[in-house]
Amino acid sequence: MFLGGECGKRLIPNVIDETARKTPDLECMSIPRTNNPYDGWKPVTWAQVANAVNYVANMLITQNGYPAPGEFPTVAYIGLEDPRYPIFVVGAIKAGYQALLISPRNSIEAQRNLFDKTDSNILYHELQFASMVQPWVDARPTMRIVAVAPFDEWVADGVTPVLYTKTFAEAEWDPYVVLHTSGSTGLPKPVVLRQGMVAQHDLHRYVQARNGTLPWLPAWNSSPNPRHLLVMPLFHAAGILISSLCAFYYNTTIAFRDPSHPITGDNVVKWLKNSNPGWTAIPPAILDHMSHSEEAITELKKLHVVAFGGGRLPPQFLLLAFLRDI
């Protein structure tokens, strides 16, 4: 029996609400206790995630009103790499909006193009991103910005629940999230992921092994320690899908990295040492850097799986992985 509906037709807002009702104190995600990784990670429960989703939905409705049925106005979001990304996405769905996740690396022209193509007129951002986002807003006169509250306020008790009543048949073509292309062949273009497409990943658990190998979701999430250290950026498909699919459909705890420090090989080693993951996904350039560190190799060898994405791995790392049994 699956919480939130029939496997393959479960909508993530319903999965979160149902799981929070049945197992409110179970760990869903975890975040660093401080900006010192040696202080460890603290749990974020299913009840807190559900509460934060309702916080976002209420915020969007209060500040922007109820959208007309079937319209899904676009609300852009940029912030620290923490649970607010996947939570904002689901909160937008509950409120009848669609979230656009934008890269901080985009040029002003690229951001404006994304806002224009998605008809986005509001940008929610982390307070410390204020100076970064201001030029983007200046380039689009209809745009307004809202600084979001710290994560602790999102998970605080006392938020009014927002009901999500759509069936799978009603919502399968509704947007789940709007991402964008890299812009390597021109300006970045928006890419809409639909709820039905996201829900199909739930069915991977029934795909039979081929040559002894299962699809990545059931294989990696059923390993002896399925806990995942999230290194990939959350505005990227790898980051937002790993965090959403693994946590919400496969009940895998997602350990978020410390967003106050950049993604470097040395920092990844510290996060691996102190967050107790069983697997992770790391950009190729970072893995290449880690391949020159004996300490990093030792930490990588402890994992069940080391995945990568966003480019090809250097041949020397592949040789090292083979020789050192990574």
TrEMBL record:
<dbReference type="InterPro" id="IPR042099">
    <property type="entry name" value="ANL_N_sf"/>
</dbReference>
<protein>
    <recommendedName>
        <fullName>AMP-dependent synthetase/ligase domain-containing protein</fullName>
    </recommendedName>
</protein>
<dbReference type="InterPro" id="IPR020845">
    <property type="entry name" value="AMP-binding_CS"/>
</dbReference>
<dbReference type="Pfam" id="PF00501">
    <property type="entry name" value="AMP-binding"/>
</dbReference>
<feature type="domain" description="AMP-dependent synthetase/ligase">
    <location>
        <begin position="17"/>
        <end position="317"/>
    </location>
</feature>
<dbReference type="GO" id="GO:0031956">
    <property type="term" value="F:medium-chain fatty acid-CoA ligase activity"/>
</dbReference>
<dbReference type="GO" id="GO:0006631">
    <property type="term" value="P:fatty acid metabolic process"/>
</dbReference>
<dbReference type="InterPro" id="IPR000873">
    <property type="entry name" value="AMP-dep_synth/lig_dom"/>
</dbReference>
